[in-house]
Amino acid sequence: MNKLLEIGLVGAILGLSLLPAAQAADPKPEDVAQYRQSVYTIIGWNFKPIGAMVKGEVPFDAAAVARHAQYVEMMSKAAPEGFAKGSGPDAVKKTEAKPEIWTKASEFDTKMKDFQQEAAKLSEVAKGGDEKAIKAQFGKTAETCKACHKEFRKD
Ligand code: HEC
User: Fold this and answer.
1) Among 21, 64, 80, 113, which is least packed, fewest CB within 10 Å?
2) Which atom of ligand 1 lies at the shortest distance from residue 94's CA?
């Protein structure tokens, strides 16, 4: 089969455009919201098992903590893109994001940076495998989740 046709067909099947750059430049509000919700789903997915180990609900596994912490750190860096202007509750139905994210942008930004900083530290500490240090840094990171949710996410 003609290579270009083949790519086009695969693209059509996957629902992709041959020009993804055009989409990236102008994402729909729903897509932005879906992106950030996906990012936070991955964050929660990886943060939860660390919490379970820290609380002693499951056996401590240093390698697993390090792996999960790395994903949380990575996703903390991916999160800001999910808050493009115009992707708030006035444009998107299915969202728990509060309008204050955009009206108090610098405050939100600070909360995001606090999170990124503590998540990066958690990832660093996790590599060392010191259970006590991990426990302490997990607590600090969890505080940054709560601080942002309290102010910027609907219950
Ligand atoms: C800077 C702000 C901020 C920080 C920090 C933050 N969150 Fe969130 N989180 C949000 C907002 C806003 C939403 C709602 C997104 C939406 O519904 O559009 C959300 C949604 C979520 C969701 C639900 C995702 C879904 O399915 O829709 C989970 C789970 C979550 N956060 C976990 C966490 C965890 C765990 C941390 C810390 C490790 C964290 N968040 C840190 C702002 C934040």
Assistant:
1) 21
2) 17
